[in-house]
Amino acid sequence: MGRILLSRVAVAALLTLYDAAAQLTSFPLCRGNPAASYSDAGNTYPQVKKALSQVSQYQIATWWTDNNAYHYTEMQKLLNNCNDTSVPTVVIYGLPNKDCGAAFSNLGTNRDADTYVKFVQDLADLVGTRPVNYILEPDAIGLTLNAPCALTSGYLDNMMSVVPLLTGDNNPNASLYLDVGYWALQNESTTSVVVQAVKQLASKGGAIRGIALDTSNYRTTTEMVGLCTTFSAAAYKSMRKNFTCVVDTSRNYIGPKDGSREWCNSKFAAIGVPPTSATQSDLLDYFLWIKTPGESDGPCNTPDITGDALKNGPPAGQFFEKAFSMMWDQGYFVDKKLGDKLNEYAIDGASTSGMSVSWIVIVIVVAVLVFLVVGGIVMKRRHDAKEARSRNTRQVRLLQESAAL
């Protein structure tokens, strides 16, 4: 009888843990902290202040990164702003030698496995057992597919060590999503590698709820639903476990132009659907703004950067007024008539001096027409003058001939 009772208790406990994670999406997202990069942007660029205020009404993920010397106090502030029945979203970005491919975001103080574990443990201690969404290490899994530096830097080993610290018995109310670059799920072979990476990361315990897609990128939500379906099916086949996804919609409203794979400050960035659990898909837990709209990806000035990028931007994480203005004008709020267009820049990134693109086109057309009309008048006058001189010459010649007779 005692064994049966213990078994029932164990089953109930497991169901409680499962339900805790499953029901997080029924809690509202906590708006949390204002974006740090916005604090001075409104004063420096008053033309975008109203748009920044509107964007700030929604949750923007808070980054726990050793690139930021104030990450600890910012996390304390976030947790003070969020109650136990609202869900903050925290991005963990602290791997030693992070961003080893592009090296635009590879600063920070974590130099080895021990400092990384301590870095994540500090976060886990602050959060405790409250509800939270974790996005673990943007770009890390994707880089293990095509950047040898990710393997030599021990990305997966380091991540594997911290999954149990953040989830499972330590916090049954945490939902952990592993960031996966969209390109890693576009064929069967790389999808298989991703699934094996997820399997490895789950091998030391803890609980992985799913993956985060489109972080700091621009691919459409429709495309991400397809990739989530692909991953979930492959993962279930391999691990007999259901995984869900979250999608970063911070700048994916229109998607890139056909054929463009530019990742760095793309001209086609457009602020997307605001954060919500109302995704209309059982596979998608949330639309989130993981990347802060308007924050730079870096200077984007290396040889591999294409003409689809806004080049020579500020360092990664700093506010980029040109990028924000363009993604606002091309994005959700303007399209849904929830905000006014800023009209600061055209799609090519050139300043419009406050005029809309359509007015620029009209001005150019009018200028060309004026040039043609004026040019036509001048040419006609020259032609008429030439004809008059010819007539005068003929008349003089006739008079001279008459006088000679």
TrEMBL record:
The chain crosses the membrane at residues 357-379. Keywords: Membrane, Signal, Transmembrane, Transmembrane helix. GO terms for molecular function: hydrolase activity, hydrolyzing O-glycosyl compounds. Residues 1-22 form the signal peptide. GO terms for biological process: cellulose catabolic process. It comes from the Eukaryota. PANTHER family: 1,4-BETA-D-GLUCAN CELLOBIOHYDROLASE C-RELATED, PTHR34876. This is Aste57867_14018 protein.
